[in-house]
Write the structure tokens for this entry.
Amino acid sequence: MITLEVVRNTRLSPHFTSVTLGGPELERLHPMGFDQTVRLFFPREGQAGLRMPTLSNEAWMAQVLLLPKSRRPWVRNYTLRRVRPEVNEVDIEFALHGTESPASAWALRARPGEPAGIFDMGISYLPPAEAAWHLLVADESALPAVLAILDSAPDSLVAEVFLEVPESADIRGDVRGPAGVRIHWLPRDGAGTMPGQLALETVKRAVLPGGRFYTWVAGESRLPTGLRRHLVNDRGTAKGDIAFLGYWRHGRSSPG
């Protein structure tokens, strides 16, 4: 368990903000790059401080759940967008969707000096060396993970990248990636479709390169499950060449 505090909160676009966390305990973090995921602990609104678990094995969850809600922190999974060990800082980017979500509400109000904590969960982006190219697909919830993967990628990476965002103003014009990477931005721009649907339908219609490829797809649960089904049934992709992660489910919030 690593206890930190908010250093900065930087608005990136209408639907994204970056919260920088820092503190000397980050010396214990082993940066892995790619989609390195952490459990993020943050206080509920109105709590005076942050009650972090003291256990670092799987028993930590039971320890948190045994706390009364008046002292229990919120816990959510997030990707480390950037790690700067030289200054003991990490950035975590949040897709904002109002104050109904505890994480979005916290990211909107987080100010320097407020407490937070992380617990390292490792990476899921594990491509086989035999893959000729990669397919990376995400809705807004997994956009930071894909951008972190591209930051960590070797210059030799060849990839087709499909990134769905709420609106055109959320497109990151400064994102390039290695020369062999093609990024397809997919803004919904008020279309009213469920997050992930545009990305799924676009990839289904896409003309993709030949050869063996590795897929990493994450976002609203229907996106990764639907894309995996399409790749296996319609394109003959081996299941072992697909990493698919349901980050959230529309209409449901994680328990507190």
Observations:
- The mean pLDDT is 93.
- Residues 222-235 form the longest helix (14 residues).
